[in-house]
User: Fold this.
Amino acid sequence: MENIRSLFQTMTKRFGFLNKNCCSVDGMEISLVQSHILYEIDRLKQPSVQQVADSLGMDITTFSRQVQKLVQMRLVRKTPYPEDRRIMILSLTTEGAYIAAKIDAEMNEYLAEVFSHMSEFEKETVLRSIQLLNDCMAKSSVCCKPMYGSK
Amino acid sequence: MENIRSLFQTMTKRFGFLNKNCCSVDGMEISLVQSHILYEIDRLKQPSVQQVADSLGMDITTFSRQVQKLVQMRLVRKTPYPEDRRIMILSLTTEGAYIAAKIDAEMNEYLAEVFSHMSEFEKETVLRSIQLLNDCMAKSSVCCKPMYGSK
DNA sequence: ATTTATTGTTTGCAATTTACAATTTTTTGA
DNA sequence: TCAAAAAATTGTAAATTGCAAACAATAAAT
Assistant:
C-alpha cells in the first residue's frame, strides 16, 4: 500500500488541475481564488467578510481586496449589516450567481466524467468515503482548520 | 446526498489547511509550493526541470525561479544531464531530503489523527476509494492534467 | 557542413497577489 | 463614559506570477 500522504497529494493535485479549467465563463475571466470566493459566498448564506475569509483560510486583508475586485466585476454585492454597522454582508449578484452556477455545473460535469470510469457501486462507495473523511477532518483537533488567528 | 463538487471542495479545502501547517521545519521556512516541489522531486527520481514543472502544473518560468530559491536554501541540487546538456536534473540535497522527510512524517501524523476517528475497516475503505479515484482521474480525458502547453 | 527548427531552461519586466502594520468606524463592557 | 475590542479597509513593501524574449544545446533539413 502506498504512503497515505501520497494518496492525498495525488488526489488534491489532480482535483486542482480540474479546478483550474473552470475559470473562464462566457469570456469573463475568473481566477481560481475568485471562483472559490464565489462558491463560498454562495454556500454560506449572507456571510460577513470575516466569515468567508476564515472559511477559506485567507488573510483578511488579501480577501478584502479580492472582494473589491469581485464587486467591481459586478459579481458580488457588499451590504452593511443593519444590526452591526461594522459588518459587511456579502452576496452574489444575479450575474455572480450565474457564473457560480456555471462553474458548478462544469465541475460536476468533469467529475461525472471521472466517475464514469467506475461502477455505480464503486461510485457510491467513493462518495460515502469522502463524506466520512470530511466528517473526520471536521472532528480532527490537529488540523484542517485555518490558522490565521494563531499569532 | 450532497452535491458531488461540494464534497470535493470541502475535502480539498480541509486538506489544504492541513498542508499549510507543514511548512516550517526546524526554523526553516518553506512555502507551500516549495514543499510541493520538494515532494515532487523526491517522487520522480532524477527529474528534469521540465518534468517537475509539468507534473505540478506550474508555469515553467515560475518554477525555474522557485527552484533557484531552493538551490539557494541548499535544499535542491541542479546538475546538468550529460547526455543532453540543455537538461538540468533536479535532486534533493541531504538537507532537502531531511526536510522533505520531516514534512512527510508530520503530514502522515496529521492524517493518522484524522483516521483515528474511524474504524480500521472504514479507513481501509476510504484509502481504497481514494486509490480508485486517483486511477479514474488518471484515465479521465477531460481533466486532471495540467494544461499549460495548451496555447 | 551549414543552416534552420526545436527543445530545455533562464531572464526582463510588468502586473498581480500577498501580508504585516496602521487606520477608520462601530460596538461592547467595565 | 471611555478604554478596549471587533470588523473592515488602506499604505506599503515584498513575493509571486506569467508572458515575451533570450540563450544554449540538440535535432532535422538541405
